[in-house]
Amino acid sequence: MDVLRASSSTLVHSPYISTTTRRNKTQFLKPIFHHLKLKLTVFDSSFTLFERNGSKSRLFMTLPSSPASKTESIEPPMLELEADGCEKERFDWYSHWYPVMPICDLDKRVPHAKKNEWKVFDDTCPHRLAPLSDGRIDQWGRLQCVYHGWCFNGNGDCKLIPQAPLDGPPVHTFKEACVTVYPSTVQHDILWVWPNADPQYKDIIMKKKPPYVPVLDDPSFSRLMGNREFPFGYEVLIENLMDPAHLPYAHYGLILNSNPKVKVDREGGSPLGMKVEKLDINGFNGKQDWGCSYFIAPCIYHAFIDVDQQNGSAISETEKSNRRFCLVFMCVPVSPGKSRFIWSFPKNFGVWIDKIVPRWMFHIGQNLILDSDLYLFHVQEHKIMELEATNWQEACFVPTKSDAFVVGFRRWLNKYGGGVVDWKGKFTGALPPSPPREQLMDRYWTHVVSCNSCNTAHKGLKTLEVMLQTMSVISIGIVAVTKQNMISMVAKSTMVSMAIICFTASKWLAQFIYKNFHYHDYNHAFV
């Protein structure tokens, strides 16, 4: 997974997760998941990155939805500088932990290594720059490059160069033969990586741990997880996850919404009471009518919703069940125009459902929701870029309180983060060209291959489809080759009927697989 920039990284279970980076250069991570392979590319340095210009940008603010005092807006109007050296605090994009992938979605089908942990390496073999993510774990638990067989231990040290004479110089011990290893850890059953391999960060886990989200460790809450890659940037992803006002419209018919007292349209949109209560270099705290929210820079946004309050349940304090539903969103920068999303929806009611229903069934519905506004976000990002606005507010008009968290995020990004992700000057600022709609909204390569549950279900359903087709052909074949007096009309009719049923079922299943595991368009005009 890409975080900021790294030459490319790889990860494999218990053995090693390899990650690539030019020697002695810090880069950001991009895990590239290979279908049915035993490892996962974590970093990718082949990105062009975008540097922020030196112009000043304004503080973003929202106006109250109705006349109100100045204290009801997010912040009073004022100017703020970009992070151009004038600010005392500057957010360091390379000195934070980034989530790579839920452990449940990392492929563990590799030879058992001697270490029961994950490691993150640069994804480039120092010999001829082959990707270590296409390598294997040998019988001694070493990461082996399949190009020429060079082997590396968990610390990135080269332990074997098969082509080097045993009685010759120990070239495998040279520094140039080593692979960079990034600090990594597992928390909340998620693999995290620190995208800076400088020696000073070797034991960073002892000084600074990944952000802690208590609900992900609370046994009274369910916590199914998922992941997906998107064809739009980190900024667009995270700001829209903070925006509940778009739910009745972009996801109409897919998400249950509370009925407002005054309904102004079919969808049920209404004014939302939202405000940012605290904003600093570490993120911000937010408050809305039905709960509270937190942005933990740079990746995490989570919110707590009081279900009974949200539904307007008329029950006494003693009768309240204190049902809580939480949103935990992790947004990872991959490159300009690309991002990775890891999500979980912990709740402390109906937990038994999550234990008996396969995870892939939940992902079908969740991916449909994600697809319903994917195209909007992709186009939105391109339009903002086309306007060549010096800051986000020049392109967008945000007059109501429902945009408070979006404005809060853009304020944080502008004030502390330099206005954009720090890509170390590798990108020109241009976004990737827009692919055809079917490729843009593809589920298979952006989710299925990197989700253990969906990948298993996809292969199982494809096998069932082939079995149904085979049974149909066999049934027709038996009827065709059997002599007329050797089988009764009832048996013949039964076999023909079975063939038709199997064929019809296989066609239905093929469509089901395509719509739920490959591509499902969403036309807002017909919902």
Automatic annotation (TrEMBL):
The keyword Nuclease does not apply. Keywords: 2Fe-2S, Chloroplast, Iron, Iron-sulfur, Membrane, Metal-binding, Oxidoreductase, Plastid, Transit peptide, Transmembrane, Transmembrane helix. One of its GO terms (cellular component) is membrane. Gene3D superfamilies: Naphthalene 1,2-dioxygenase Alpha Subunit, Chain A, domain 1 (3.90.380.10), Rieske [2Fe-2S] iron-sulphur domain (2.102.10.10). GO terms for molecular function: 2 iron, 2 sulfur cluster binding; chlorophyllide a oxygenase activity; metal ion binding. It is found in: Membrane; Plastid, Chloroplast. The keyword Transmembrane applies. Residues 97-193 form the Rieske domain. Its main location: membrane. Pfam families: PaO, Rieske. This is Rieske domain-containing protein. It comes from Gossypium darwinii.
